[in-house]
Model the fold of this input.
Amino acid sequence: MSPLVAPSLLSANFGNLDADIEIINRSQADMLHLDIMDGVFVPNISFGFPVMEAVRKKVTIPLDVHLMIVNPENYIKRFSEAGASFLTLHLEAVNHLHSAVAEIHGLGMKAGVSLNPHTPVWLLEEILPMLDLVLIMTVNPGFGGQAFIQSSYDKIKKLKELIIRTGSSALIEVDGGVDLKNARHLINAGVDILVAGSTVFKSDDPAETIRLLKNPNKPVA
Ligand code: DX5
Ligand code: ZN
Done:
């Protein structure tokens, strides 16, 4: 089955975002991944509401918002107003995840939870039936262009088993180091959504790269 592909804006050209958004709008991309970083939860600062709201006016696909911030529950309504369709919080950053997920749903968004590389999937057992998406970080969050962590395949398989066992319909999204070579292994391991930043935006033809990511079962040399 063809995965959903979410290009990550973090690797786009911020000097000419309109051009990259136009490429995305004309491509087979399913949603646009937005990385919100606060310099506290992760050692980097990305962009915030003004950029997100400007992007939202131009992009024609849903916004998949990945919050790498402390106290993300304080900003759920604000991200809803800014146009998020999917809102993903880090398990490591939230004290009251159950109520945060309920609030996301109450505002009409899809709810996701993200796990850092060191966080085991079994911590999601109780919350999984409520989730629309689980985002497995396949690099340490904070920067684009890092190397994929190979042990992530086992983690994805464990998550898939837990999703089935708990009767959850959550989609599995992976983020970090996704490329044209590992995409098909990720799909075979059970991944539904591929996030790709540098692989898409640093390629000569981002739309063609997105098309190739969506057809991962054809081996890439
Ligand atoms: C990293 C971000 C990613 C990043 C991925 O913390 O969450 O979404 O943009 O970039 P690549 O695909 O280049 O690893
Ligand atoms: Zn991300």
About this structure: The mean pLDDT is 97. The chain has eight helices and eight strands.
